[in-house]
Structure formats: structure tokens, C-alpha cells
């Protein structure tokens, strides 16, 4: 089934102001592309489960400006909490600053609010709303490399059908298989988690966060013993970092006085060599506790926010190698500074959809991008392909691979694609940036966001629009806070309040949009063989293939540049295509430096074809669409037997395993197998039909 849906929006006045030269409009050719079916990914799961309808964080948007530039410019906007299973690829500017951005990090003030559960009747209405979204052709995804006949299937009918295991820098696949806590004589007793009452914890938390005017909290020691006092001291210091304690006698009774470290001089006696601070972090122990995090239906940043809330610490003491999707079960390594394995393991008793284990103490944190990749276990349900078709498709994936397109999640999940915001930033059209992020738009959004946008459109008053937002940590809220602080005359500073990684996501989205389009043109023009003028990497340096060396390379060696000031371009027709596309967007390919250093694009190189590793698959039959079709790490820890499949069932599913390097999209590999459009717009159509 083919759902190619186009929205045509008029050019804005800001866009014309930006385009001072002659516009040479690009056209995207989609001839010869087989767009037959649609599958179900990312935000659409078994809607009969209430927890599947929660917490869709819809953020920035941007409505199409130059629809002559694209035949199908309709659009979704990105959840800006780095949600890929891969590390984003794109260079960042490195030049001197002419205009400095003031960037503020918003306080970590707790959880993002969860969206109320959707009513049963909203499946169809959501599909209708998503008709305003992007299709693959709108972001340059038009080609396939294999010749097999495609077939239908549903991806992520349940989020448990998509499991991601991180591959560390040593090549080891992360698994949660041990919940035990390392034995350490320095750890306090387990009683520290139960000795304080809920009232005590509330008062201590308010003291820790400076939420009251009190300078201390006093806790009476009932059943006074030295051991009991020691446990209370340990509980306060371990559960509420930054607080100090001392013991006082008052009218014959013992009290523990907790006070903030900032008030130490006034409340605590001077410590001497004979009275050192107890319970400090042991010198012999590594400063970082590494652990494996198993999570269900949460993205990595949300998970860290939850952990930091329960531990009463700032999220920035956590480190990780890559961010993972929300709509999946994911297993990855996390490191946290000076939090004991004992405290972390205690969270297993009070958190749902999380499990922490495989604890160890290390000297160093984790670094973003250190991973080798991710291993995927994916179930495609209700497939229509014959066993022969499946065999052909999977053999092709194993032997040839797939086009390394940036997946649809790179471009957003509401009615405006993030690449349009990125383009406006690069054009220095700051009024356009604000307009694209805050203006009303069709499609699926939370009610309070709709009201916020309507208020902004009506009043252009950031304070009034902010009052409509119960959750102010979304991109819209952050931008409105910036506009309230700096005013509409200083949008650059206002925009700088949004965290840097989130701002750069817009620009990287534009780079990805250009790259997708150029790779489609490259494959259409030259096919799946290296040609003279293509680029290959020698170490970290890109070089052109000379005519005499063409036979020395394969298509798997060829790379294409993301546009920037520090890359070279192919020496054939595609070089001119890059120039034409950027010129149509009022950008100069020979000058990708921005007067704001953060927004200068250095560029990068990306392989055009990826061949997955460790590929295996099987076709299974099943009758109940609600049952899981394989065991997770948690199932194995709990001793659940593996599922037993009938020889014949009502439905058939394809279970596939494969490994991918960082910054590649599993949905693009699955697209190659099924020969189907992976956009939410098309996925919801198939899911709606399936639910009926």
C-alpha cells in the first residue's frame, strides 16, 4: 500500500529575506522506487496496553518553507533527547566566535510529566493525524540495493519486539545476567534504606535542595544505641549527598542533626586529625560504579533523569557510550560517579521497567562514542512473505547490506521536520527559527502544546505561552523561557538556553537530509559499484578513486560527505548536485562557517552501504499476538522458559538478529528486507488496518 501524501505550504517572508540570490530549486526524483507497503515502528505499539500510550514528548517543529524545493515536504519533528540507538554523526564548528551564545542548562527538577493514557477510540484518529507527517521520499530515502520481492510485516507491534544490546569498545555485547552487589566492607548496612521515616526523608530532601528556610533537620534517635546512631549518620550522608551530620544531647535524649555542607562552619565543630570525616569514598575503590542498565520503553536520557531523581543527584554525574531508543528494550553500560553499587541495586526494588546489575568499580567514566555498535534482536510480526522470499531478503542483507540512510527518527515526530529548523539556523533566519518551533501545526500533539502554540500565535507573548505549559523542559518551553529573559530582539541568546546537543540536532538533521538525497542520486547515477571520482577513506583522510584504482575497491568502501567546511566532495556529477541543493537553500557550499561557532559545519564522511555482521534469522508461527516471541535478559534472570512455537499458527513472524556499527539505523536495514516505507505516517496506516 502506498501512502504518498504531500502538503504545500507558502513561502514565509523570513525565507525570502534570507534568499538574496537567485533560487535554483532542487527536485527529488523518485522514479523507479517501489513504495508498496508500510510497517509499524517507533511510536505505535499494541495500543491495547495502557503503558504504551504514555509520555510522548513532542518537541520542536518547523513548517515547510520552500515547497518548490521538494515535491513532498510534509513533516515530523524530533524528540530532542538524543533518541537513536547510535551516536549522531556530524562535525561541529571549530572557529573563532564572532557572536557568542549564552547557554543555560535548565535545572533538573524531577520527572517529565507523563501523558494521560489514550482512550480506546484514538487509534484511528492518531493515524489520521499522522497523515500530515513525512514519508521517506520527503527526506531523500528512495532507493534499494537488493532485487528480491518485498513483503509486508509489522515492526514494533510491541516494544518488546525490538531489543538492543550495546557492543562495548572491547567487542563484548552487554547483557544483564548478574544482580549481585560486589562485597565491600566499606559499604554501610542495608538498614540505611529503612531507618529513616518518609517524613524524615521529605524534610532532608527539602534541606538538601534548599527548598525551605531551615538550616538543619533534627532526627530523634529512638532506642538509642551507638549502632543505631551510626546507621542514621550513614543513611543521611549516603542518601542525601551534600548533607553533613552530628550527634547532640538535648535534655537527656540523643538527636542526629543534619545540615547542609554550605552551613558547615556555623553548625559543625572543626574536624581534626583525630576526628576525620567518616564514610568517605574509599581510596582503594574506583571512583565510578559501572553497571548494566536494562530498560523498557524509556530512552536513555529519560532513564538517567529517573535514576538521578531517586538517587537525589544531578544527571550529569552519569556517563554512557551511546543513547538508545525509547520504543524498545535496551541493554547498555552506564557509569556513575561515587554512587555505591549497594545504592544502585536498591533501586531494583522501587523502579518499574528498569533493572540494574553487573556492577563493578572502575577508575574512569564512559565516553560518548566509545562503543563498537549495537546488536539487534527484532521481530517482524504478521509477515506475508513466503519462506523463499524471506530467504532471499535475508541473504541479500547478509551479503550486500543496505543503504546507510539516516532513518526517519532523525527528522522528527510532529508535523514539521527538524531539518527545516536546521536550515533556518544556517541561513541566520532567527525569526524563522522561532516561528518554525513555536507556530501551530496539524498532527498529533499533546493538548497543552496545542494551547501553548495557539497562545503564541495570538499574542507573541512568551510569558503567556509559558503559562500553558505544565512541562517547561521541552524545547518549546526552553525557547519561551529564553525569549522571556532576552526578548524578541535577541533570539540568538534566547535560543542558546536550549541545551547545546539539542540545538545541534537541528543542524545535524539538515546535514542528514542533504546526505540522504545525495546518496540516492549517487546510486541512481552510478549504481552499486565504485567509479572514478568516488571518495574512500585512508585512515581518517578522504581521497578520490583514480581510474587505475577502481577495481581495488568495492561499494562498501565508498563514502559520501555530510556538507561542511572541512570535507571534500566527489569528482563527478554528484559534486554539482551538492552545490545545487545548497544553493537552492540559500547556502554557500564553499563557506559553511557560521558567525556563531557552534553552528559552523565542519562536515564528516559516511559509508553509503553497510553490511551487517552476525546476521541470523528464523520464521516462527504463533496464534496470540500478545505473547513475546523470545526471551529477554530479564526473562532469563527470572528463569522463564523460552517460548514454544506451534508448527502451524494463525500468524507468521520473522525473528532476525544482526549487529551494526554506531550511527547506523536498524530501521533502514529492516526497510531493505521488507522493501517498505518506515515512516510513522505509513506505519500507522498499516497498524490501524491491523487493529481493525
Separate helix tally: 19
Note poorly predicted spans. 1-17, 19-124, 263-279
Number of strands: 18
Q: What is the strand content?
A: 15-25%
Number of domains in the coordinates? 5
Using only C-alpha atoms, the radius of gyration works out to 27 Å
Averaged pLDDT, please?
A: 78
End-to-end Cα distance = 16 Å
Overall geometry: globular
Which bin fits the share of residues in helices? 25-40%
Q: Which sheet architecture does the biggest sheet show?
A: 9 strands, mixed
Q: What structural class is derived from the secondary structure elements?
A: alpha+beta
Catalytic activity: a uridine in tRNA = a pseudouridine in tRNA; a uridine in mRNA = a pseudouridine in mRNA; uridine(13) in tRNA = pseudouridine(13) in tRNA
Domain TRUD: 401-611
Protein name: Pseudouridylate synthase 7 homolog
Keywords: Isomerase, mRNA processing, mRNA splicing, Nucleus, Phosphoprotein, tRNA processing
Amino acid at each position: 500500500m502506498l501512502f504518498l501524501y504531500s502538503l504545500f505550504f507558502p513561502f514565509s517572508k523570513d525565507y525570502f529575506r534570507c534568499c538574496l540570490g537567485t533560487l535554483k530549486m532542487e527536485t527529488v526524483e523518485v522514479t523507479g522506487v517501489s513504495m508498496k507497503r508500510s510497517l509499524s515502528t517507533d511510536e505505535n505499539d499494541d495500543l491495547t496496553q495502557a503503558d504504551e500510550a504514555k509520555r510522548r514528548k513532542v518537541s520542536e517543529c518547523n513548517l515547510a518553507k520552500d515547497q518548490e524545493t521538494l515535491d513532498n515536504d510534509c513533516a515530523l519533528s524530533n524528540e530532542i533527547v538524543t533518541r537513536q540507538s547510535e551516536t549522531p554523526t556530524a562535525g561541529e564548528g571549530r572557529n573563532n566566535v564572532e557572536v557568542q551564545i549564552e547557554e543555560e542548562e535548565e535545572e533538573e527538577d524531577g520527572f517529565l510529566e507523563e501523558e494521560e493514557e489514550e482512550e480506546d477510540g484514538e487509534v484511528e484518529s492518531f493515524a489520521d493525524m499522522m497523515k500530515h507527517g513525512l514519508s521517506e521520499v520527503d527526506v531523500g530515502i528512495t532507493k534499494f540495493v537488493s532485487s528480491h520481492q518485498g513483503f509486508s510485516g509489522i515492526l514494533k507491534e510491541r516494544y518488546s519486539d525490538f531489543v538492543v544490546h550495546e557492543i562495548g569498545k572491547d567487542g563484548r555485547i552487554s547483557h544483564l545476567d548478574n544482580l549481585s552487589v560486589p562485597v565491600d566492607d566499606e559499604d554501610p548496612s542495608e538498614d540505611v534504606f529503612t531507618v529513616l521515616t518518609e517524613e524524615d526523608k521529605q524534610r532532608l530532601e527539602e534541606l538538601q535542595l534548599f527548598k525551605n528556610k531551615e538550616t538543619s533537620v533534627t532526627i530523634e534517635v529512638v532506642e538509642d544505641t551507638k549502632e543505631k546512631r551510626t546507621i542514621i549518620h550513614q543513611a543521611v550522608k549516603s542518601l542525601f549527598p551534600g548533607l553533613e551530620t552530628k550527634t547532640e544531647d538535648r535534655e537527656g535524649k540523643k538527636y542526629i542533626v543534619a545540615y547542609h555542607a554550605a552551613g558547615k562552619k556555623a553548625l559543625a565543630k572543626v574536624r581534626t586529625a583525630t576526628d576525620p570525616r567518616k564514610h568517605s569514598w574509599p581510596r582503594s575503590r574506583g571512583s565510578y560504579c559501572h553497571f548494566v542498565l536494562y530498560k523498557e520503553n524509556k530512552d536513555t536520557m529519560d532513564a538517567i533523569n529517573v535514576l538521578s531523581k531517586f538517587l537525589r543527584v544531578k544527571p550529569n554525574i552519569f556517563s554512557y557510550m551511546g543513547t538508545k531508543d525509547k520504543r524498545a528494550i535496551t541493554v547498555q553500560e552506564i557509569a556513575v560517579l561515587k554512587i555505591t553499587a549497594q545504592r544502585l541495586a536498591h533501586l531494583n526494588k522501587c523502579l518499574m521497567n528498569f533493572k540494574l546489575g553487573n556492577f563493578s568499580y572502575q577508575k574512569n567514566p564512559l565516553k560518548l562514542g566509545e562503543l563498537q555498535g549495537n546488536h539487534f534482536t527484532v521481530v517482524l510480526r504478521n509477515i506475508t512473505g513466503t519462506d523463499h522470499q524471506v530467504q532471499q531478503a535475508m541473504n541479500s542483507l547478509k551479503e550486500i547490506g543496505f543503504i546507510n540512510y539516516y532513518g526517519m527518527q532523525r527528522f522528527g515526530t510532529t508535523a514539521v521536520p527538524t531539518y527545516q529548523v536546521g536550515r533556518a539556523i544556517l541561513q541566520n533566519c532567527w525569526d524563522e527559527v522561532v516561528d518554525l518551533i513555536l507556530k501551530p501545526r496539524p498532527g498529533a500533539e499533546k493538548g497543552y502544546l496545542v494551547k501553548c502554540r495557539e497562545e503564541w500565535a495570538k499574542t507573541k507573548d512568551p510569558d503567556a505561552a509559558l503559562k500553558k505549559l505544565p512541562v517547561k523542559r521541552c524545547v518549546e518551553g526552553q525557547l519561551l523561557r529564553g525569549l522571556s529573559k532576552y526578548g524578541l530582539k535577541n533570539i540568538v541568546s534566547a535560543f542558546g538556553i536550549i541545551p547545546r546537543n539539542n540545538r545541534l540536532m537541528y543542524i545535524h538533521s539538515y546535514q542528514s537530509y542533504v546526505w540522504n538525497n545525495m546518496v540516492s542520486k549517487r546510486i541512481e547515477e552510478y549504481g552499486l559499484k565504485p567509479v572514478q571520482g568516488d571518495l574512500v577513506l585512508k585512515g581518517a583522510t578522504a581521497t578520490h578513486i583514480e581510474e587505475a584504482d577502481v577495481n581495488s575497491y568495492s561499494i562498501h568502501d565508498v563514502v559520501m560527505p555530510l556538507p561542511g567546511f572541512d570535507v571534500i566532495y566527489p569528482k563527478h556529477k554528484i559534486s554539482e548536485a551538492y552545490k545545487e541543493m545548497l544553493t537552492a537553500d540559500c547556502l554557500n557550499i564553499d563557506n559553511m562557517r557560521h558567525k556563531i561557532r557552534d553552528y559552523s559545519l565542519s562536515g564528516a564522511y559516511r559509508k553509503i552501504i553497510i553490511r551487517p555482521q552476525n546476521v541470523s534469522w528464523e520464521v516462527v508461527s504463533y496464534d496470540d499476538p500478545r505473547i513475546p516471541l523470545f526471551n529477554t535478559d530479564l526473562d532469563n534472570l527470572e528463569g522463564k522458559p523460552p517460548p514454544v512455537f506451534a508448527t502451524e499458527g494463525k500468524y507468521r513472524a520473522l525473528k532476525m538478529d544482526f549487529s551494526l556499527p554506531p550511527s547506523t539505523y536498524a530501521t533502514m536495514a529492516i526497510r531493505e528486507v521488507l522493501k517498505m516505507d518506515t515512516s510513522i505516517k505509513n506505519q500507522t496506516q498499516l497498524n490501524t488496518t491491523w487493529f481493525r
